[in-house]
């Protein structure tokens, strides 16, 4: 029986996770859960460590983890969020960040032209290197002569494996996005890995765009995209753009995946949203669609599809939270999706 660890976390994390769990429970599948209630900012404040070696061992024993959100103003600027999220990412080598963006309902699109609204793509973001490795430094910090350096790291292993994963995920087309015209070294490596990997996939339509053009095209012609593969920072930015085109931050799901081990950390794209925490207003759809991604990976694709259909039905009937134009709270919105399942 698949074992899922659950990390509700901070802010709205526990509220949206509760709805995702209630939905999974209601499906009556052979899933068991190990809830790590203590992995949060409160524990970090009290003990200086939110994710212990024992927690990590429990997570390793499981088949996947469902995370709410990690982040709290009381520990902002400390290494708290980095320690939890980056530790999980690096220790479990979750190198592929998979973010689908599928328009939930026509009324949620910010685009004027109805024929161009139906975005249905996946952004595969490299998750372990690029600009976010914290390698760099500052000279004369705080002075007007300061020099600040953040190094962008690309390795042959890191680039080729995320490209391989993107190609394996696609059935129609893959677009590689870089800035090789301005970032020559990493750009050359991405180009080379892309050429090597795509040679073996003549069945797919493959293309390349510079990131500035890709951003423009996502707005002007979003339905042209199927799978996009790109580095850590471009993936961060483009996936927020795609999320906004698909229905907004509250609806966006993701998984941090190691395709070799099959282990995934499933989480909504939004953060802990402290401004609305505890008010029963957070949209649970990002967490619920993340649970659907999990269902797909642990052998329940039919249930995953049913969950997505139920979400679309609830949104179509405006049985949803205020960010999607509805009047329901978090709990009632979760309940509406469960009701649409039956
Ligand atoms: P973090 O640093 O934890 O990623 P952030 O600063 O990126 O946090 P988020 O927590 O992602 O911010 O949220 C940004 C804003 O979007 C929130 O303040 C909130 O108003 C809104 N928001 C985020 N998630 C949701 C949601 N699930 N439902 C409704 N509104 C949301
Ligand atoms: Mg954020």
TrEMBL record:
Keyword Transmembrane: no
Cofactor(s) needed by this chain: Mn(2+); Mg(2+)
Ranges where the Isopropylmalate dehydrogenase-like domain occurs: 3-337
Entry keyword annotation includes Manganese: yes
Cited InterPro entries: ICDH/IPMDH, IsoPropMal-DH-like_dom
Coiled-coil ranges from the UniProt annotation: none
Alphabetical keyword list: Manganese, Metal-binding, NAD, Oxidoreductase
Superkingdom of origin: Bacteria
Pfam family, one: Iso_dh
Protein name: Isocitrate/isopropylmalate family dehydrogenase
């Amino acid at each position: 029986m698949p074992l899922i660890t659950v990390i509700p976390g901070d802010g709205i994390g526990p509220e949206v996770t509760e709805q995702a769990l209630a939905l999974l429970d209601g499906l009556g599948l052979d899933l068991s859960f190990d809830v790590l209630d203590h992995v949060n900012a409160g524990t970090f404040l009290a003990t200086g460590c939110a994710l212990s070696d024992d927690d990590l061992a429990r997570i390793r024993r499981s088949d996947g983890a469902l995370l709410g959100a990690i982040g709290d103003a009381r520990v902002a600027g400390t290494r708290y969020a980095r320690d939890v999220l980056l530790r999980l990412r690096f220790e479990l080598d979750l190198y592929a960040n998979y973010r689908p963006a599928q328009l939930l309902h026509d009324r949620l699109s910010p685009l004027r032209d109805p024929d161009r609204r139906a975005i249905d793509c996946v952004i595969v973001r490299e998750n372990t290197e690029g600009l976010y490795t914290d390698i760099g430094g500052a000279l004369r910090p705080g002075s007007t002569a300061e020099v600040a350096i953040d190094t962008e790291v690309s390795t042959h292993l890191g680039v080729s494996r995320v490209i391989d994963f993107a190609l394996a995920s696609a059935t129609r087309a893959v677009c590689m996005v870089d800035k090789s015209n301005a970032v020559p070294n990493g750009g050359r490596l991405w180009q080379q890995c892309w050429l090597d990997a795509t040679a073996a996939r003549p069945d797919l339509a493959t293309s390349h765009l510079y990131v500035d053009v890709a951003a423009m095209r996502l707005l002007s012609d979003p339905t042209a995209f199927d799978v996009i593969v790109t580095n850590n920072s471009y993936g961060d930015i483009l996936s927020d753009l795609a999320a906004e085109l698909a229905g907004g931050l509250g609806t966006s799901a993701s998984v941090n995946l190691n395709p070799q081990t099959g282990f995934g950390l499933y989480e909504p794209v939004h953060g802990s949203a402290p401004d609305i925490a505890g008010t029963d207003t957070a949209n649970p759809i990002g967490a619920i669609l993340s649970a659907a991604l999990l269902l797909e990976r642990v052998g329940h694709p039919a249930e995953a599809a049913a969950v997505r259909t139920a979400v679309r039905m609830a949104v179509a009937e405006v049985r949803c939270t205020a960010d999607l134009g509805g009047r329901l709270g978090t709990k009632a919105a979760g309940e509406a999706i469960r009701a649409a399942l039956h």
